[in-house]
Fold Helix-turn-helix domain-containing protein.
Amino acid sequence: MNNPFEPINARLNNLEALTLEVLQLLRSPNQSASDQIGGIELAAQITRLSKARIYTLVSERAIPHKKRGNRLYFNRTELIAWVEQGNRQERGGLES
């Protein structure tokens, strides 16, 4: 007779192994996520803008990027700083 909890136990073991692997990657000093460099997909993920809009901003030189040949590169830290610069100031002196 098979143990009905065996598949659950196997999945829990798999989840535990994956969690330990992720923790190890997060703790590794090799390359932090803040220094990650990527392509248009990274820019779209961070800014939540469409690829077409990002290409427009690149052509206007309005978004931080690097270009090597025909490839675009974006730095996660620079993109986050760029997004944060877009924060609007609260209006002063207005009360409800």
In short: Strands lie at 37-38, 66-68, 71-75. Helices lie at 6-27, 40-47, 51-59, 76-85. The radius of gyration is 22 Å.
